[in-house]
Amino acid sequence: MTDDLDAExxxxxxxxxxxxxxxxxxxxxxxxxxxxxxxMTNDRGDTLLILAAYHAHxxxxxxxxxxxxxxxxxNDRGQTALAAAVFRKNAEAVRALLDxxxxxxxxxxxxxxxxRFFDLPELLTLLTSR
Length: 130
What we know:
The chain is mainly α. 55% of the residues lie in helices and 0% in strands.
């Protein structure tokens, strides 16, 4: 697919992913509201939501969820935003994803498996209490 995109379009897409990584919630939200696909993925299958969760930006996670981001999408390695938030020990992002309906057992490894592997009992309790 990237072979079909011109350099300017690719640069714009990379910038959007960078906004998610950096937690630039307001700017990224503005682009989504203007028509940027909220479930846009990069060449590894990472969505804006997965990147925001992995880089521990709960406000960006919440904003993307509020704009329709699919919390169940997994990247090419089977990782979900919820598992990424658990890996980063970000309870606020975990709560936002759970509140949106994210399944703690979905993905490979799942959020529950991630919490068990990294011995995160507080997050494991959060994941299994819902």
